[in-house]
UniProtKB/TrEMBL annotation:
One Pfam family from the record: ABC_tran
Keyword presence, Nucleotide-binding: yes
Record-linked InterPro entries: AAA+_ATPase, ABC_AA/LPS_Transport, ABC_transporter-like_ATP-bd, P-loop_NTPase
Swiss-Prot/TrEMBL keywords: ATP-binding, Nucleotide-binding, Transport
Domain of life: Bacteria
Annotated ranges, domain ABC transporter: 18-258
Molecular functions (GO terms): ATP binding; ATP hydrolysis activity; L-isoleucine transmembrane transporter activity; L-phenylalanine transmembrane transporter activity; L-valine transmembrane transporter activity
GO CC entries: plasma membrane
A GO biological process held by the record: L-alanine transport
SUPFAM superfamilies: P-loop containing nucleoside triphosphate hydrolases
Protein name: ABC transporter ATP-binding protein
Length: 261
């Protein structure tokens, strides 16, 4: 019997990067997410838009395993990870950044990245290797370059600008060969110049790395994504290409009318 193209692709491991089916998350009587179904292909870059309380961060928490969904399933690269703890998802190439900063402010830029690289590599609990691993150091330098921080590699994090600290967080998410990254409002609080830098960093990430970016700034969101999911009251309200979403009257009304911010 002939093998279809779809079967071959599937056998070659080209399952969807992410597949949510009917995901609902309750907090007591409050439904933070209701019946969310979402498919993201490998390497796809998706923006998630929606006003405060729409359920965007809860969506991330369910995907990473920080919270379990109340109902529904989550597949990561074809594997059902609905019940998996967060570290098992990290092992499979999933990363995230948070809305709050989680950096070692007393250490240098390169030390922070080095520690992240070491943290996700094998043998991290070995006590008989006190010396720096050259391969990991090389990876750390490459990541510093990727996020435009190589010139401040030896600067302490506490001395970086706010925008540079956010860039460093992206480097940490890139440690250990990720395949899919969740960015939670990386442009929040950035100056116009820092925003442009962020856009450049995101658009220049290796093509095989897909992501979802939660972003309030429509300009940033539409420039770094090829697909957009609009959320409202815990549900998916609309999906489309950036140009479709931008010109959609319902989206404009929801986004530009009150409630957003
Ligand atoms: N840990 C939690 N406990 C209780 N309610 C929560 C929790 N996290 C989020 N919520 C509620 O779920 C809804 C969605 O929140 P969230 O996912 O943070 O929205 P967004 O990131 O889109 O602003 C909000 O009503 C929020 O108050
Ligand atoms: Mg949020």
């Amino acid at each position: 019997m002939a093998v279809s193209v779809a079967q071959r692709l599937s056998a070659a491991g080209t399952a969807n990067a992410l597949e949510l089916r009917g995901v609902t998350r309750m907090f007591g009587a409050l439904a933070a997410l209701t019946d969310v179904s979402l498919t993201v292909r490998p390497g796809e870059r998706r923006a998630v838009l929606g006003s405060n309380g729409a359920g965007k961060t809860t969506l991330f928490n369910c995907i990473t395993g920080d919270f379990l969904p109340t109902l529904g399933t989550i597949r990561l690269f074809g594997e059902d990870v609905t019940e998996f703890p967060a570290y098992e998802r990290i092992r499979r190439g999933l990363r995230r950044t948070y809305q709050i900063s989680l950096l070692f402010t007393g250490l240098s830029v390169l030390d922070n990245i080095y520690l992240a690289c070491r943290g996700v590599s094998r043998g991290r609990f070995s006590l008989i290797r006190p010396r720096r691993n050259e391969a990991l150091m090389h990876s750390a330098e490459q990541l510093a370059t990727a996020v435009h921080l190589i010139d401040v590699r030896d600067t302490k994090v506490a001395e970086l600008s706010y925008g540079q600290q956010r860039q460093l967080e992206i480097a940490l998410a890139l440690a250990g060969a990720p395949r899919f990254i969740l960015f939670d409002e990386p442009a929040a609080g950035l100056s116009p110049t820092e925003r442009r830098e962020l856009i450049e960093i995101l658009t220049n990430l290796p093509a095989h790395i897909g992501y979802i970016i939660i972003e309030h700034d429509m300009d940033v969101a539409l420039r770094v994504s090829e697909s957009v999911t609009m959320m409202h009251n815990g549900r998916i309200f609309k999906e489309g290409r950036p140009s479709e979403i931008e010109s959609d009257p319902e989206v404009q009304e929801l986004y530009l009318g009150g409630g957003h911010g």
